[in-house]
Amino acid sequence: MVKIVDSIEKANAVTHCGTMHADEIFATAFLDLYLGDRLVYRTNNVDNVKLNDDVLVYDIGRGKFDHHQVDALKREDGITYCSFGLLWKEFGKKFLKQQDIYYVDEVFNFIDRDFVEAIDADDNGSFPKIEAIYKVKTVSSLFKLFNPSFDSCQDESTQFLRAVNVAKIILEEEITYANGRVLADKKVSEILENCADDKFILLDNFIPYEDTILNSPNGENILFVAFPSNRGGYAIKTVPKSNEDHTARVSFPEEWGGLVGEELEKVSGIKGLKFCHTGRFIVSCNNLDAVYKVLDKLCQ
Prior knowledge:
8 helices, 4-stranded parallel sheet, alpha/beta, 39% helix, elongated
């Protein structure tokens, strides 16, 4: 559990005070998950302060876990590590071993790319280019909401602890998600090796498959993926052209779009079809027989 202490002598974690950012919030959350019982002192200055070796100073002081110095460590893609990224780089694999993660390197790298790097980038002023007609909030912008609002009675330390508690939940879920994605990638890769010449794959249960198909040479011919639906029956989904281009390699027929039940069965000529999305990227079926008839029809 994280606690705020009122002097640096009582602390085992030291970071800056004032306006809080996703960087030091997630750094604190990570340290508490990894080491436990973080006693945090938030300050504007650690110059000329002698600290014990077991005290971690981050996002302040221009030391090992700060990034405000001119020669701050950069990633291979040029993005500067922030304090969260530096701490994850130093301790992430040890932490994952504590969590009994089997594929430590793969999960570490997945989390670094999927989550940590974006916080590093944002905190260092490399903001994403977002083209949307509505406002999009990033993880970093969401955590700015925890700063005491104008004309409110919110206490800075209380808000910091609330933010850290939320960050811990998110980080735990990210780790679970990343581990699942790595395990799924291993399984889908094995499936693709055994059906490299096919135009579809049929899964025994839903597995996150899209990235593996798009990134594997064995997935180049796959047009559809079918799997048991959590709504009952089966779902068949199209495969996009790439991670950037979400246009389907092959869409379901135009005349199927938006139809349900008997009307869809009549137009398609296939009994057991339940629904086709207006975007023609997913179809639901009552049974496997209908699944195979759809796939036979579209994969000739």
